[in-house]
Specification:
The complex is a heterodimer of chains A (452) and B (123). Chain A is built from 12 helices and 19 strands. With 452 residues, chain A is α+β, with helices and mostly antiparallel strands. Chain A folds into 2 domains: 2-115 and 153-308, no CATH class; 319-429, Alpha-Beta Plaits (2-Layer Sandwich). Chain B is built from 4 helices and 6 strands, in the order E-E-E-H-H-E-E-H-H-E. In chain B, strand 2 (19-26) and strand 3 (29-36) form a beta hairpin. The chains are: A alpha+beta (452), B alpha+beta (123).
């Protein structure tokens, strides 16, 4: 017996057609949709501050609408998504309304909450939790800036619980990416939570598919050998031992090979002997990837150890404002021209009494995209990219006004102002930390769509 | 660089001849995964592609240290470049806030040419 778990969203902003195309071209048991990068939570939290009903991945609603026919036609199909963001309950309510309107109000929707510990920070700190920064080792008490979000990474357990409770669609907030896959696997096979070998295998499967097309030919060193326009999104076929085969829908573009799978296996990992998730401590070192058919790669060899007693927390705080703007510099001496433009902008700001906390100039095309590599001082066409950051919004706004005047009061041979003034964005800085597992209590609620 | 050992054999090869790569971010750190095309190539990389060599290849990132991890099952090495992203996805003013380019850049990393290159190249 195997369970077929697909992923058709690797981040908020991924291809909106991918989920529908996937379920139309392959029969899977579970479709996972992953929307939350490290900082997405803080962006969503900021939206929630402006509107209490907001703060989830609205892309998920668009996708859900497109999947109603598949939900009706394919009885086996279930969905698991972390698109609930910082507001899974509002997300479920909106999803419920869509399903009800589409005539499928009986579909059971499960919601996982409890990851949002921001309202509990004071209580947890009073109880002795220092929320030490994992990089700097400073305690959270040394941070003066307002905290915009704090979410513990939940694991697969509440997802499996929601599925056991009959949910056909599970909406969560911050859950470890791999756990979106582990939850359905545990529910399917009834593994115990200390069956670390199997949990490790399923976690590897989850890690491999969590970024969508990145395992099926996207972001691939040999990108020129594959059709990426019609790239197929990944499917993990997991067996009861926790081994998996990574594949993609027949007839889709892209590729699943030893190479694409290995590239994704090493994506954003640290110590490969200890890939920590809320479910298990995974050892990747003996994992193997073997091509067993066209676009089919068998992955086995994951080993697991006891899960950590702490949960990772994604905490973000307000850190001022930023903006970036760019202009093309053309002709002989283009690099000098770009540097002079940067200097003109910097001086004009200084003369206006506007001193920015941070100012950065890059000559893209002159070998500055990776600083220190491939310098091309003779490039005759470079894009000057100017960026600034400052605690004061007005200072950054002042900065964004300084590009346009270069059109008439800068060097000859500049172009590209048509985009207008650059937007000023708020900066949410990241404070990686941990919280004891037993300090976080999760809640699972399963109801019919019409009842949300 | 210019000291060739024989007229036909160059002194160095680029990493991309024997391996493919992928990079990404974790906060202000980046990781660089290097996957050898063959087991022979992996042995060569274990020997030659040291953390110091990777650190020296990226002189302009402000990296505080580089740590290397081995993944023999898939013939890969993983490097973590600490503090190399000028603040990371949230705060870096660089275009490449997430170190996405490091993998592609590393394909040009020079290594001493091995004698048995044919057994290391992409099949």
């Amino acid at each position: 017996m195997i369970v077929r778990i697909a992923n058709a969203a690797g981040f908020l902003g991924d291809n909106l057609d991918a989920p529908r195309r996937l379920v139309e071209s392959a029969q899977v048991d579970y479709l996972t949709l992953e929307y939350l990068a490290e900082l997405t939570m803080s962006i969503l939290a900021n939206l929630r501050e402006k509107d209490p009903e907001a703060g989830y991945a609205r892309d998920f609603l668009t996708v859900l609408r497109s999947l109603v026919p598949a939900l009706e036609a394919q009885e086996q199909l279930r969905m698991v998504t972390n698109g609930g963001g910082v507001n899974p309950l509002s997300c479920a309510a909106a999803a419920g309304a869509i399903l009800k309107e589409a005539g499928v109000g009986d579909v059971a929707v499960g919601v996982v909450t409890g990851d949002d510990i921001r309202p509990r920070l004071a209580e947890l700190r009073a109880a002795g939790c220092k929320f030490e920064n994992l990089d700097t080792h400073e305690p959270l008490s040394s941070l003066a800036a307002p905290i915009v979000s704090a979410n513990a990474y939940l694991g697969a357990q509440p997802i499996a619980e929601a599925l056991a409770g009959g949910a056909r669609i599970v909406v969560t907030g911050r859950v470890a990416d791999a756990s979106l896959t582990v939850g359905p696997a545990v529910h399917t096979f009834g593994w115990k939570w200390d069956d670390y070998q199997r949990l490790a295998g399923a976690s590897v499967a989850g890690h491999l598919i969590e970024c969508g097309a990145q395992v099926t030919g996207g972001f691939y060193t040999h990108w020129d050998e594959v059709d990426l326009a019609a790239v197929g999104y990944p499917i993990a076929e997991i067996d009861e031992q926790g081994h998996c085969v990574i594949t993609k829908p027949a007839g889709s573009g892209g590729r699943v090979s030893r190479e694409t799978v290995c590239e994704q296996l090493v994506y954003e990992i640290g110590d490969g002997a200890h890939y920590l998730t809320p479910d298990v401590d995974v050892d990747f070192t003996q994992v193997t990837a073997e091509e067993i058919g066209p676009d089919r790669v068998a992955v086995r060899g994951a080993r697991g150890g006891p899960r950590p007693e702490t949960l990772k927390v994604s905490l973000a705080y307000r850190a001022g404002f930023t903006a970036s703007m760019q202009v093309l510099c053309y002709g002989k001496g283009a690099v000098d021209k770009a540097r002079r433009c940067a200097e003109i902008v910097r001086r004009r700001l200084e003369d206006a009494g506007c001193k920015l906390a941070r100012f950065h100039a890059e000559c893209l095309g002159a070998g500055e995209a990776v600083p220190g590599l491939n310098a091309r001082p003779d490039a005759e066409e470079v894009v000057l990219r100017l960026s600034a950051a400052d605690p004061r919004r007005e200072a950054v706004e002042r900065f964004t006004r300084e590009l346009a005047p270069l059109a008439t009061a800068g060097p000859a041979g500049l172009a590209g102002y048509a985009a207008g003034r650059a937007p000023v964005r708020e900066v949410f800085a990241y404070w990686p930390t941990l919280v004891p597992r037993d300090a976080v209590s999760t809640k699972v609620d399963v109801r019919k769509a019409r009842e949300w | 660089m210019s000291k060739t050992r024989s007229p036909t054999k160059p002194a160095t090869i680029s990493l991309g001849r024997v391996a493919h790569t992928r990079s990404g971010d974790k906060g202000n750190h980046a990781n660089l995964g290097v996957v050898a095309y063959t087991p022979t190539g992996y042995e060569f990389l274990v020997r030659e592609l040291t953390a110091d060599r990777v650190a020296a290849f990226f002189p302009g990132l402000g990296t505080s240290r580089v740590e290397r991890f081995e993944l023999p099952g898939i013939c890969a090495l993983n490097f973590v470049l600490y503090d190399c992203l000028a603040g990371g996805a949230s705060q870096s003013l660089r275009l490449d806030t997430q170190g996405k380019l490091l993998g592609t850049a590393a394909l040009d990393l020079p290594l001493p040419a091995p004698d048995n290159l044919l057994q290391m190249e992409r099949p």
